[in-house]
Amino acid sequence: MALLVTMVGCGFAWRKAPYDERMAFLDKMTEAGITYRTDLLRQGTPISEEACRTGYELLDPDRPYDQTGRFQSEQWKAQIEEAFIKGCVTGRARPKPEPSGVNAVTPVPHGSGTPSGSPTPSGR
């Protein structure tokens, strides 16, 4: 019976993490990048993509799985690295995931009520 529990327990650890859990992990990686940026500034190290990438490589995070079984897609690994590096380079959270690379900025829709392309009221 103990063997069955152990096997089931191990199998559960290898499950595909739910979407919300993976997005929360990206937020965590962004925060870690922002924290690393603060550390770099305290040391007097210039902020650069290279310095931030080095910080990520030193971190070696325990990533949740995005596939069933002990597998993580290359795309998922790249999204995690991107979240850390963007947090480090910019010092702020970014929308994620962004398929166009580290320098991309994904627009965030905001329901302002003003249709796109319409003139905004002029301070009346």
Folded structure, characterized:
This protein has 124 residues and is mostly helical. The chain has a domain at 17-65 and 72-90. Helices cover 52% and strands 0% of the residues. It contains four helices and no strands. The radius of gyration is 20 Å and the shape is elongated. Mean pLDDT is 75; it is low at 1-11 and 105-124.
Outline:
The protein has 4 helices and no strands. The chain has 124 residues and is mainly alpha-helical.
Biggest pleated-sheet summary:
none
Low-confidence stretches: 1-11, 105-124
How many H/I helices? 4
Report the radius of gyration as a whole number of Å.
20 Å
Give the overall pLDDT as a whole number: 75
Helix content: 40-55%
Name the helix and strand elements from N-terminus to C-terminus, one letter apiece.
HHHH
- Protein structure class: mainly alpha
Percentage beta strand: under 5%
**Strand tally, please?**
0
Distance between the first and last residues' Cα: 75 Å
Query: How would you describe the shape?
Result: elongated
